[in-house]
Amino acid sequence: MSRLEPQPGERIDRSKRISFTFDGKRVEAFEGDTIGSALYAAGRRTFGRSFKYHRRRGLMCVAGQCPNCICSVDGAPGARACIEPARDGIVVQHVNAEPSLEHDVMEVTDRVGTKFTPPGFYYKTFIRPRRLWPLYEKVLRNAAGLGKLRHEQPEREWRTEYRRRHADVLVVGGGTAGLHAATAAAKAGADVVLADEGLAAKLADLGELATAARDAGVEIIEGGSALGNFDGLVPVWQGDTMHQVRAARHVFATGTIEQPLVFAGNDLPGVMLTGGALRLAQTYAVAPGKRAVVATTSDRGLEAARALRELGVQIVAVADLRPEISELGRALRQDGIAVFPNYTVVEARGRKIVERAVIGAMNPTFAGTEHTFGVDLVLMSGGAMPATSLLLQAGARTEYDERHGHFALAQLPDGVFAAGEVAGAVGEEAAARSGELAGLRAALELGYGDADSRGRVQVLETAPTEDGDQVAVAPAVAGAGRGKCFACFCEDVTSKDIGLSIDEGYDSIELSKRYTTVTMGPCQGRMCQLPSVRLMAQHNGSSLGDVGVTTARPPWVSVPMGILGGRPVEPAKRSSIHPRHRALGASVKWAGDWRRAYDYGDPAAEALAVNKAAGLIDVSTLGKLLVRGSEAGAFLDRLYPNRFSNLNPGRTRYGVISSDAGRIVDDGTICRLDDDTYYVTTTSSGAGAVEEWFSWWLADWQMDVRLTDLTQGMSAVNLAGPNARQIMSAVSDLDCSAEAFKYMDGKLGTVAGVNALVLRIGFVGEIGYEIHFPAAFGEHVWDALMAAGAEHGIKPFGLEPQRILRLQKMHILVGQDTDSESTPFAAAMPWIVKLDKEQDFIGKWALAHYAELPPSTALVGFTLPNGDVPTEGAVVLGDDGSAAGQVTSSRHSPVLDRTIGMAWVPAALAHDGAKITISDEGRRLAAEIQTRPFYDPDGEVLRS
Amino acid sequence: MSTLEFLAPVAAGEDVVARSPMEALARDAGARFEVRDGFNVAISYPAASYGETVSWCDTSHLPKLQLQGSSKAIDGAAGIKLQAGTALRRDGAWWCRLTNERALVIGARPSELPDDVDVIDVTSVFASLTVSGPLARECFARFCALDLRPAVTPVQALRPGSIGRQPGTLIREADERYLILFGWAVAEYMWSVVADAAGHLGGGPIGVDQLSERNMSHQSTPNTDA
Fold first, then answer.
1. Cβ neighbours of A246 in B, within 8 Å
2. How far is A210 from A301, CA to CA, in rounded Å?
3. Are A547 and A540 in contact (CB under 8 A)?
4. What is the pTM of this model?
5. Given an 8 Å threshold on Cβ–Cβ distance, is B19 in contact with A776?
6. How many C-beta neighbours within 10 Å does residue B12 have?
7. Do B54 and B219 form a contact (C-beta atoms < 8 A)?
8. Which of A811, A867, A880, B44 gives the lowest tally of CB atoms within 10 Å of its CB?
9. Which of helix, strand or coil describes residue A685?
10. Under a CB-based contact definition with an 8 Å cutoff, are residues A723 and A792 in contact?
11. CB pair distance less than 8 Å for A578 and B120
12. Apex CA B197: angle with CA B193 and CA B201, to 5°?
């Protein structure tokens, strides 16, 4: 055990002991420990194996930033041991090592496989023979990765709550600056939310500030990671809740991230960031090691050295990368610590953990200056990079700051503020001032605050600022050639890999990123952005500013995909008759955004029932628009190629809507209810688009017309078949005789005691009544018709039999038999285009043009003699065997007992009796063209 | 029958009962029904006691009329100038201006409306739920991105927008009570969305009588009847 004496502010509760297992072995811990701190205290140094080379990895950042300690907890992958709380009884397991963490066979990749696995190796070394790629892929995928999903689907599921939260001000970051910003904005009157991924850990230090913020009304989302910035929407992931925070103003107090140094062996267990070692010691009272070498670019490392020495860690040497020794450095020397200015760490050596550290002077070869120390800890502090990712996503801009050796904020977008270290405010006082200023500015912009607030802003704006300590710019790499020098710990990208990518032409940071995958791992560039930029600048001989940084993209924190999935409730429209379809055992399928009865078990029998007796289908999904006004008829005349202003009240007419380019976009029927009122139906899938189309043109034309979308409010059923008339007569007060209720009539009357509009139309080719009535009566009307039809052999029929029946009549389905290039002329409907209409209409110019140019293809029917049913989409071959058309619909007709279909064919073949060949998945099918409906070609049944 | 009479879910026959699109779900949840004004209405649930959390009530039976006409004509019909974004309570109904030339009357069929407005019964175009209780706003936050903070959405506020990823309209009827309207065909989906969110918060469905009782004891409907 390497527990220290109780530390001021430690998070562990030594009176509460818990235990968990790691790889099956029991581990003792205190409440408040993380998995990482408990394991480290128990002596574990290897926490995982790296992504590609399977190298040992140990704790490095102790802040959830790097990927080194990723493990699985209770079977769920992706946990970071260094921040995951230890809980009694949990089962923790390593990832990416077989058969064990200590003995990983894939370690061979590191020892002998490096030359086979350069960046992009899967494009280079595993491409031949090509047929083996599936095997290679399987092996590679199995060898790489950072954990495995649970096997059983139920184990992968958990409930995620999605909580939208509007706020005046969102503060991201719960350190000194963030808490001051939140409190200031809230006190000024703003509604403030503060999110911080590690606030609970900071509360020991910042408890009073957090209390003040809460007292001021700030909602604090503890342990909430801001994932990104999507045009002002900031998702904050907090355990099983995803807060979707939309704020009018944003304050980012995201701090800085301590950077590693790139040197040989910089990934050995025992090589840590100074901040990580301090957190282990001060927060969890765990000694990070016994003998340490420190390498630093600023006083941050020196402060860590001093603090750790006081905790009993022997600091054997400090390599200060700055050319001059600082005041603190001199103080350390006086305390007996060897401080080497202008030195850096060159190499960490050791088999399983660090055993020796080599430091050398900052010159190209380190010749003659090297010192080697026996240590179990190498602490590095390669500078502090502002955590600007969320700000960049919000539209901020950064520039390279030569003085500090990092990319600093240069410009902020409107409504976005930065506070604390990310904005360059170093030290507690500066952070507090910077936070308060940002919070007040945000609140004032929204109209909150008063004269005192404005006065306070002036004071804060004029307060002196410090520029922080002088820092050294870390070398791109030290000790190259002595071993692997990692720029990216997540993806195992070395300094050599970056150089190789440039040599192979990927010479910009964005290209190199895509090729090497540097910055694309779980740390999202936190550890590797700056090192990779330095390496590229060095290799290219350009400045860091010219290299720039890669585009910041969400998520800023790695998250399970399930968190992003949304609740498992799928929007669906259902007819008010849907419960009846369920009760009848219908096969229900998607039709656009509706759930529809596809069939009731036997589509052929259902179709036959319509042809022989009677059938009832729910067509409530049809679009239904009420068009009213003194210019309603003229309005429709402008929208459709045919006329509606001359339609008599009580009559119905078919209409095709064409686009500006004369192409078919939808169809339906239009019934004139009275002089000023039309009831327009559209296809089910086209309802929304047609309503938008009508509204758009109405807004332009400014006619005396009012539109009302009744699609969801009106149920509709189609009663069809030879016995439909008797059934209708039994349930309706309308005179349903052929003389009184003619084909294409539309009448108002009652059906089963319900007021309804009844259209005598026949999409399925039989005597048919399309009955429209309020959706609240859906089940009642359905039940009444089914009851009345029982003695007449009525059957419910679904979408599939309807498709058979309409095909028998060669009625087109827009979108299936037509596409975006189909015109009414080519679709065998020239009669619907009234070019002699006196007024203009949508698509008139184009249709007039097409009228003079005979179409090269035509939509026709076809039959097959031998019972084969070609696949819809099968190719119609031309004389020379090339593709000349396609099958759009095909079915077996039960009433005709043969295969029927529709297809686009060369216009020259669009005549009865012409022979075509259909190529269908290897089959060649001989078919014969038919231009008239297969069933009731003269419409005698329909009109009877 | 007049031209547009067939649009109203008012039965011509005595034995005809109008039904909510959520009736089957309400029945599965244990609702007790009663026919009121021709509508089969879920009036109560035996186990309902969600006073401290959130409840939802199927109020799809409420009559809804769409008024179309000039802005002046619509104001004339309402008897007061209707403001966009605010629902006015009058004669037992909410009067809601949707656009300059379109308004919605929810909850009653006014006995007399002037001839210069075009009236269309849209009762069965829109289904509705009344979501109420201390956690009502928290419940909405689970499926709706509308900003319902009291400062932004005060009582009587009218907010068209996306509710459960569907086009909808929300009226804040009282401090802790919201009426939402949505398409009749998506009602079953919307029930499942509200039930998923409210159920997780400890809530459940209540009937219209239970909603009325709760209003008497906990809520204060704005006395804005003009």
1. 145, 147
2. 28
3. yes
4. 0.91
5. yes
6. 17
7. no
8. A880
9. coil
10. yes
11. no
12. 160
